[in-house]
Amino acid sequence: MKDLLHIIISVIIFCPVLLFIVVYAIGRKVHIRGTHAFGAASDATTLCLFFSVPLAIDVLWKVNVGAFLVMLAIVLAIVFTYVDWRTKKEIEVKPLLRKIWRFLFLVLSTAYILICLVGLIQSVVEYLQSV
Q: CA-CA to 86 of 20 to 30 Å: which in 27, 32, 108, 124?
C-alpha cells in the first residue's frame, strides 16, 4: 500500500497534466460546470506544479530554484494585492487569493511546458552528438 501511494504521488509530481485531466474529468462526471471543473483542476494542479517545476529544473540542470519560486510567488502576491488595493480600495481576500493562485497556475504551467520542451530538445541534441 505504501509503495502504491509512493508511485501515485511520484507520477503526479512528474506529470501534473495527468492530475489536471483526472480532476477535470471527475468534476465533469459529478456535473460541475465546465468553468468550475477547470478551476478546480487548475487549483489542484498548481500545488503539484510548485513541486514539479523546481524538481524538473534540478533534474535537467542541477540548479535548485525552490527558494526563488517561493520568492516569486510572494512578490506576485504583493503586486496583486497592491494593484487590487489601488483599484478597489476595499480588498476582498478570497477573490484576491483566487486571482493570485490562478495566475501562479498560468506561470507555472508555462514554465513546466517550456522546461519539458527544452529538456526534450537538449536530450535530442545530446543524443545526436553522441552518435
A: 108
Instruction: Show the cell assigned to 106.
Output: 498560468
| Contact (Cβ atoms closer than 8 angstroms) between residue 56 and residue 64 | no
Q: CB of 57 within 8 A of CB of 63?
A: yes
Task: Supply the pTM of this predicted model.
Answer: 0.91
Selection from 4, 101, 95 nearest residue 47 by Cα: 101
Of the CA atoms within 13 Å of residue 104, those in its CB half-sphere come to: 28
Q: How many CA atoms lie within 13 A of 125 on its CB side?
A: 6
Q: What is the pLDDT along the chain (131 residues), one digit of tens a residue?
A: 788 888 888 888 889 999 999 999 999 999 888 889 999 999 999 999 999 999 999 999 999 999 999 999 999 999 999 999 999 878 999 999 999 999 999 999 999 999 999 999 999 999 999 98
Q: What is the DSSP string of 23-80?
A: HHHHHHHTT--HHHHHHHHHHHHHHHHHHHHHHHHHHHH----HHHHHHHHHHHHHHH
